[in-house]
Amino acid sequence: MTFPTAPAASPRHRVVVVGSGFGGLFATKALRRADVDLTIVDRTTHHLFQPLLYQVATGILSEGEIAPSTRMILKDQPNATVLLGDVTTVDLATQTVTSVQDGCTTVTGYDSLIVSAGAQQSYFGNDPFAEHAPGMKTIDDALELRGRILGAFERAEVCDDPHERAKLLTFVVVGAGPTGVEMAGQIAELAHRTLVGAYRNFDTRDARIILLDAAPTVLPPFGLNLGNKAAAALEDLGVEIQLGTMVTDVDADGLTVRDSDDEHHRIDAACKVWSAGVAASPLGAQLAAQSGADLDRAGRVTVEDDLTLPGHPNVFVVGDMMAKDHLPGVAQVAIQGGRYAAQQIKTELTAAAKDRTTSERAPFRYRDKGSMATIARFKAVTKVGNLELTGVLAWILWLAVHVVYVVGFRSRLATLISWTCTFLGSWRGQLTITDQQITARNAIAQLHLIHNGHDDADDPSAKAS
């Protein structure tokens, strides 16, 4: 069934925002007092603070602390409507957005469109790797990884075979960017600090944590100096770093890699984490095909100076889907892009209401507020312009910045309490796991395959073809 969410003609300007991440949410909130009817469409019901997903995966934070309900965030914004649905089509000619949820198709018309559909994990053409090495892009990913990490320790407790136990206690993180560095550091702290003494048949400090990347340095965007300091801090925690190393195969029992000498070798590991690359939402290809915009290698859409599509000044693309001036896929780019798009809409609506002619839009200018990555408690690296910080000072700055951008007072308070217990003590309050967390993703994917197969079998047109 198909349901329009608004009448064909609306007395107010209709703005549709695709995605409730940083770009979409901040654009929506910036239009709070604008004379518009606003609809925000996303496949999830929450706004995800993605930079802290690894802390959900390692038992520091709960999912609710980093993923508050979008509806509750916008509850007091009367001009905003939240629509749950997976956006499948954006039609620039008819100015409509089509979304699907639980078999129901909804078509939403727009006058202005802000697309901030984000990115997904990239396996560089090796998508089957995902079955055994989950990425770190969603709450489901983080909960599955928590189950896999802690489940490996549980299985090691009842394992009598030394070789099998060594495999269970080997954790491999693929990708030495900020997410990979943070994940490796927290797995090391979990094994070498939090869980020490919790198991009777082995010592968790025997765990082997490996961080590997095809790049020659850790944290390449931070520069060689901070990258080397981050690598040294990780090695102090017991993390083994393998650079210039490319993954060629992944299975349930481990992975095969090719090192800088072009030699292949095997790493037996029950738990693998993939944080090596990202690809923009497939919506980017749709928008590019309809507008004539270029796509970069990651599937991001090359936008005009005002973040719009060529020939479509009412369609803005922001965040991880946007390719402009080699800007990184970080939260600040999305936030500033979303606010910029909202400001252009407000400015032009105000001018139209006063029968004024709007001047040419000022181009989007990104203000780089720096980059930071935490390694473990009291250890982080920060780069702001030419200023480079490491150690405790960088870590405190990291804490402050992340608390500011966690949405909602209650979420901030809960996060601070969890951090206090974890970093000043050794307690982690989110160490509960279930078998369903580990198996659900692949089981659901299998059900979809079976369901689609049955659909094809029952469809006469499919048989005819």
Structure description:
The chain is an alpha/beta fold. The chain is built from 14 helices and 24 strands. The chain has helices at about 20-30, 55, 65, 70-75, 140-155, 160-170, 180-195, 225-235, 285-290, 330-355, 390-405, 410-425, 435-460, 460-465, and strands at about 1-5, 15-20, 35-40, 80-85, 85-90, 95-100, 105-110, 110-115, 120, 170-175, 210-215, 240-245, 245-250, 255-260, 265-270, 270-275, 280, 300, 310, 310-315, 320-325, 370-375, 380-385, 385-390. The protein is globular, with a radius of gyration of 23 Å. The chain starts with a strand and ends with a helix.
Considering the chains and any ligands shown, give keywords for the structure.
single chain; 465 residues; alpha/beta; 6-stranded mixed β-sheet; 4-stranded mixed β-sheet; 14 helices; 37% helix; 24% strand; disordered C terminus
Largest sheet: 6 strands, mixed
Distance between the termini: 25 Å
How confident is the prediction overall: mean pLDDT? 92
Rg, Å, rounded: 23 Å
Q: Helix share of residues?
A: 25-40%
The amount of beta strand, in percent, is 15-25%
Shape: globular
How large is the count of helical segments? 14
Q: Structural class, from helix and strand content?
A: alpha/beta
Taking pLDDT < 50 over at least 5 consecutive residues as the criterion, the unreliable ranges are: 455-465
